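sorry for the late reply, my laptop died twice this morning and i had to redo everyting from scratch. anyway the thing you sent over, i finally got around to it. pasting the sequence first so we're on the same page, its 217 residues, then the predicted structure underneath. double check i copied it right bc i was rushing
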Amino acid sequence: MTTPRIKYQTLEFDDYDIHIRSLRDKNEYSDQFGVAELLGISSAQWSLFGVLWDSGEVLAREVQNIDIKGKRILEVGCGIALSSLLLNARQADITATDYHPEAGKFLEANVQLNQAKSIPFLRTGWADLSDNLGTFDLIIGSDLLYEREHIDLLSDFINRHANSACEVIVVDPGRGIHASFSKKMELLGYQHSQHKPSDCDYLDKPFKGQILKYARG
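ok and here's the structure:
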C-alpha cells in the first residue's frame, strides 16, 4: 500500500480564489491500519471523498452568492469540502460532516492552505442519532444518493438537523434516485423545486444532473 499521490489546484469564484489539496485520481488508496475498512469503506470506495467531483463544483457555484447572514450552515457528506471552504472564506457559520476517516484531515489541510479560520468538522454517519450537531438554517450537499437505502437515511438525517425554517440544497449528478428522495422530503413537510445549472462552462463536460432545493417554514 503506497502513500496516495496529491495534487493542488486553484478554483476561481466571483470574489475568491480557493486552493484545493486533493487526491491525484480515483485510484489512490491508503488504509494502513484498516480504519476505513472497519467503517465499511472498501478499497474501491476509499478515494471518493478526496476527489473534486463535478457535483461538488456545481454546488460551490450555486452557494457562492447565497445569503448567509445570520444562518447556521451544514455541509453533509462534504468530501473535499469545496463549498465549505468557499463559505468559510465568506465568513459564513459553516460546519462540515463526512463519514470518511480522512475527510477531516484533508479539510484541515485545505483550511491552512487557504489561510482561513478553522471549520468545525464531525465524522459521523447519517444513522447516528447522537451526533450533537444541533440544527441549521441551511443544509447543503452534493452527490449523496448512491443507493436506495440512502433515501430514508439522508432525508431523516437532514430533518433531524433542520430548523423549523430551513432551506436544503442538494446537487445530484443523475443517479436515478432523486425523484424518490424528493417525494420523501415532501412527506416530511418540505416544498421541492429543481433545475439544471444554467452555465457549466467551468466543467470539462456537460453536467447531466439537477440542483434540488427543499424548503419549509
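The chain has six helices and nine strands.
thats about all i looked at so far, will dig more tmrw
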